[in-house]
Write a structure and sequence with these properties.
Largest sheet: 3 strands, antiparallel
Order of helices and strands: HHEHHEEH
Shape: elongated
CATH superfamily: Winged helix-like DNA-binding domain superfamily/Winged helix DNA-binding domain
Structural class: mainly alpha
CATH class: Mainly Alpha
Number of helices: 5
Length: 125
């Protein structure tokens, strides 16, 4: 999906997709689990726990930060990483909403997506 298509979808769905992309790698899930088990960790603690190169761990941390799932706070000379509870709770709520309500509640949203996409196609012509 191109960047221009995000406007076709509900903001909550776009946010959930961002969370899902961020969690779509086992190393990132391992980082989230590590941070959930502790209040906060510095990079060295995370790097020792994840069997990947430091540069790769750094990239995974950046993706999790970009998605809003973790926080990075300066604790000079280090940076302390912790879970962003608000966004993690929001992701959990969105997933529960989808699982609990089934497709009937979401059908109006899909109709909106279809309508918006059709309108965008007609403008492009």
């Amino acid at each position: 999906m191109g960047k221009g298509k995000k406007g076709l979808f509900d903001k909550a769905d776009v946010k959930l997709a961002r969370f899902a992309r961020a969690l779509a790698h086992p190393a990132r899930i391992a980082i989230i689990r590590l941070l959930a088990a502790r209040e906060a960790c510095c990079f060295n603690e995370i790097s020792k726990a994840i069997p990947l190169a430091d540069s790769t761990v750094s990239q995974h941390l950046a993706e999790l930060r970009k998605a809003g799932l973790i926080n990075a706070s300066p604790d000079l000379p280090r940076i302390r990483y912790s879970i962003s509870n608000g966004d993690l709770k929001a992701a959990r709520k969105l997933l529960k909403d989808i699982a609990k309500t089934g497709s009937k509640k979401h059908e109006p949203r899909m109709n909106d997506v279809r309508h918006n996409y059709a309108a965008e196609l007609s403008q492009a012509r």
